[in-house]
Amino acid sequence: MAYDEKTAERIRHLLAERHDVAEKKMMGGLVFMVKGGMCCVVSGRGGLMVRVGADAGKLVKPPHVKPMRMAGRIVKNFIRVMPEAYRTHAQLQKWIDRGVAFTTTLPPKTKPQKSSRDRGAPAPLKLMSGPGGPRSR
Questions:
Q1: Is the distance from CB of 36 to CB of 19 less than 8 angstroms?
Q2: Partners of 61 in beta bridges
Q3: Domain positions in the chain
Q4: d(CA 98, CA 63)
Q5: What are phi and psi of 73, to 5 degrees?
Q6: Which fold has domain 5-107?
Q7: How many CB atoms lie within 10 A of CB 31?
Q8: N or C: which terminal CB in the chain sees fewer CB atoms within 10 Å?
């Protein structure tokens, strides 16, 4: 399912001044990463998923702001904001600012070191000494 490209473009505009933003297509939408951490997601299912931290429960205001659910479970630290709650520039700015404010409190993500296996090198051979191994012949 495609995400809302118009909303994605609006978010790009809001985050344009930052140099620590990256985009990734995943979870059926477009994820905006800040400092390597997930900040918000433009969803293909409608709405915007925003990472707000422990304030998530306080920000839920039906019908336009809901708990974030995935696979039937509530996802901590995230909320789902329906399009009615970010129609204007100021409304969307408020939600993106909340996501950035929380995400920037997290330690920066570092890329894990890849093992030789991940880089395409052949896996080391294991010599077996039992039946069928090289010493049983």
A1: no
A2: 65
A3: 5-107
A4: 19
A5: -115, 145
A6: Aspartate Aminotransferase, domain 1 (3.90.1150)
A7: 18
A8: C
- Residue 77 has a CB neighbour count (10 Å cut-off) of 14
Q: Give tens-digit pLDDT for 5-54.
A: 999 999 999 999 999 999 999 878 999 999 999 999 998 777 999 999 99
> Which own/partner contact pairs does 96-100 have at CB distance under 8 Å and 24+ positions apart?
96/11, 96/14, 96/15, 96/39, 96/40, 96/50, 98/50, 98/52, 98/55, 98/59, 99/32, 99/34, 99/39, 99/40, 99/50, 99/51, 99/52, 100/15, 100/18, 100/34, 100/39
Measured between alpha carbons, how far is 24 from 32 in angstroms, rounded to an integer?
7
Summarised one tens digit per residue, pLDDT across range 56-108 is: 999 999 899 999 988 899 999 999 999 999 999 999 999 999 999 999 999 87
Six-digit token string for 131: 């039946």
